[in-house]
Write a structure and sequence with these properties.
The chain has 185 residues and is mainly alpha-helical. The protein has 8 helices and no strands.
Length: 185
C-alpha cells in the first residue's frame, strides 16, 4: 500500500507541476497572441518587419551567448535539491555574466565597422533575456515552480502593459517594442 501511495503522490505532484508550468508558459504565449494585432495596427509594415527581425536575432543570440548554461544550471540544481553545499557550487551566473560581457564587447567592436540600428537596445534585450532565462531556470531547479510560473506571468503582463503604453500611446514604434522587451524581462 505504501508503494501505491508514493506512486499516487508522485503522479499528483507531476500533474500539479505540469499545470503550474503550463500556466506560466501559456500566459506568455497568450500575451504574444494579444500583442500581434496591436503591433500590426500601430506599427508600419517596415517597423513590424524590423521588430520581427530583431526579435529573431535576440532569440538566436541569447542561446549562443549562454551556451545552454541555463539548462545546465537547472539540471545541476535538480540533482542538488536538499544539499545546500552542492547547490552553492552551481555558480553559472558568473560564467553567464562573463560570456555576456564578452559578447557585448564583441558586438560593440562590430558596431564600430557596421552600423546597427537600435544596437544598444538589442544588446540590452539579449543581456536581460539571458539573465531572466537563467533566473527562471534557477527557480525551477530549486523546485520553485510556482515562482517560475508567477515570474513568467508577470513578465508577460509587464510586456503587454509597457508595449501598449509605449507603442499605442507614445507612438514609439520599434524602440517602444524593444524597451518593453527589456523592461518586462
Amino acid at each position: 500500500a505504501s508503494i501505491w501511495v508514493r506512486r499516487m503522490s508522485k503522479q499528483s505532484e507531476l500533474v500539479k507541476n505540469t499545470l503550474i508550468l503550463g500556466l506560466g508558459k501559456l500566459s506568455t504565449q497568450f500575451i504574444a497572441f494579444i500583442l500581434l494585432p496591436i503591433y500590426t495596427v500601430f506599427l508600419t509594415p517596415d517597423q513590424f518587419g524590423t521588430v520581427d527581425l530583431i526579435t529573431s536575432y535576440i532569440i538566436l543570440l541569447a542561446p549562443l551567448v549562454m551556451v545552454q548554461l541555463d539548462r545546465a544550471s537547472f539540471r545541476l540544481l535538480v540533482d542538488a535539491r536538499g544539499n545546500r553545499e552542492q547547490a552553492k557550487k552551481v555558480n553559472t551566473l558568473r560564467i553567464v555574466a562573463t560570456a555576456s560581457i564578452v559578447a557585448g564587447l564583441l558586438f560593440a567592436a562590430i558596431s564600430i565597422y557596421w552600423q546597427v540600428q537600435y544596437s544598444i537596445l538589442i544588446v540590452g534585450a539579449v543581456m536581460i533575456t539571458i539573465l531572466s532565462g537563467l533566473l527562471l531556470q534557477f527557480a525551477r531547479g530549486f523546485g520553485k515552480n510556482t515562482h517560475f510560473a508567477i515570474a513568467s506571468i508577470l513578465t508577460a503582463a509587464t510586456n503587454l502593459v509597457v508595449s501598449v503604453g509605449l507603442v499605442v500611446f507614445l507612438w514609439m514604434g520599434v524602440e517602444g517594442v524593444l524597451w518593453a522587451l527589456v523592461a518586462s524581462n
